[in-house]
C-alpha cells in the first residue's frame, strides 16, 4: 500500500507539472513563404533552367535534331579553324578589356576626388551607360571610318601627323613618257634629263592631275631669264579646253604650289627650296651644273589614318569602344569604394612621410581591392558575353577576324546556317566559361555580407 501510494503521488506530481517549453515561432509559417517564392521559381525554371537543360540535350544532336551525334558538336568547336579564331579572340578580350576598364575606372575615380567639377565629370563619363550597346556600336562605326572627313579617329590622327610631317600634295602627278620631255621619272622622283647651269630656266612639266584640284589662283608663270642662279617652274602641262604646246607654259595652265625642289651636285643635295603659288622656284646662290629633282614625297598619297575596321585592328578597335561604354560604370563603383576608405589612415601615412604614390600604392589599392575585384570579375563576365559591339562595328568582310563566341553562336544558329546543334553546343560552352566567374562573384558578395 505504501508503494502504491508513492507511485500515485509521483504520477500525480508529474501530471500536475507544466508541459515542457516549446520554441515559439515569430511570423508566418515557412510554408507561406513558399507560396510567395513560387512565381519566382516558376519564372526561374521557365527562363533559365529549362533553356539550359534543353540546350544541353539539343547540343547532342545534328542540324536537323533527329540524329544523335554525341559530343561531335563540342569536338567541332576545338577543331574548326574559324572556331579557334573565335576562341582566340575571346581570350584576347578576357586578357585585355577587363584590366583596361578597371584601370581606367580607377584613374577616373581618383581624379574626380581632385577636381572641382567632379559631379559634372562623373556625369559625362557615365553617360555612355545610358546608351544601348547597339547605339554605341553605331557611334563607333562612324568614329572608325577610314575617311578623315567622316571618321573622328582618323581625323585626329591626320591632324596630329600634319603638325609634324607634311604629306604628299600631288599624288599621281608624273612627267610625260616621251623622249622630248625635259624631265624623267627615276625611282619615284622626277629629275631633269640633263644638268642645268646658273642663268638657265628649268621647266618641269607634269601631268596626271585634275586642273580643278589646283587653286584657281595658281596660274603658272615662267621665271625671268638672265638672273643669277638656277630658276624654274613646276606646273600642270595641260590646257583646259585643248590647245597649247607640250613642255611649254601656256595661258590657262596652273603651277603646282608647295612642291619641294632639290638641286643635286655629284649625287648630293646642295640646296632645297619650295615652289611659290605660281609654281616657280629659285636657287639664287648656286654655281656650276646641277641636276634638279622633285623628291618622291611630293607625289606620295597623303596619310589618311589607320584602317581601324581592317582585319589587323578590328579587335583592338572594338575593345576601345567597350572601354568607352563601361569605364563610367567602373568609375562609379570604385569612387564609392574610395569614399568609404577611412581618411585617418591616409593622413597618418602622409604625416609619417609617405609620398602620394606610396599612399596610393600601399594603402588605397589594398583597401580598394574588394571593389576592384568585383569590377574586374564583372567585366570578365561582360567580355565573355559581348555581342552587340562586335556585330555592329565589324564590317561583314572582317567579322570572321573579329568573331567572338556569343556572336558565333548567333551566326551558327540564326545567321543563315541554321545549325541549332552546334549553336546549342556553343551556348553551353559559353555558359561553362561564365559560370566560374559568376560563382566567384556570388561568394564574394556573401563574404562581404557575413
TrEMBL record:
Matching PROSITE patterns: ABC_TM1
Annotated compartments: Cell membrane
Superkingdom per UniProt: Bacteria
UniProt main location, coarse: membrane
Gene3D superfamilies found in the cross-reference section: MetI-like
Start and end residues of each stretch annotated as Disordered: 1-22
Record-level GO cellular component terms: plasma membrane
InterPro entries for this protein: MetI-like (IPR000515), MetI-like_sf (IPR035906), UgpAE/MalFG_permease (IPR050809)
Similarity comment text for this entry: Belongs to the binding-protein-dependent transport system permease family.
Source organism of the structure: Sinosporangium siamense
Taxonomic lineage: Bacteria, Bacillati, Actinomycetota, Actinomycetes, Streptosporangiales
Stretches of the chain forming a coiled coil according to its record: none
A Pfam family the protein falls into: BPD_transp_1
TM segment ranges: 32-57, 91-111, 123-144, 321-342, 363-381, 422-442
GO biological process, one term: transmembrane transport
This protein's name: ABC transporter permease
Bilayer topology: Multi-pass membrane protein
Keyword Cell membrane: yes
Keyword annotations from UniProtKB, A to Z: Cell membrane, Membrane, Transmembrane, Transmembrane helix, Transport
Domain ABC transmembrane type-1: 87-441
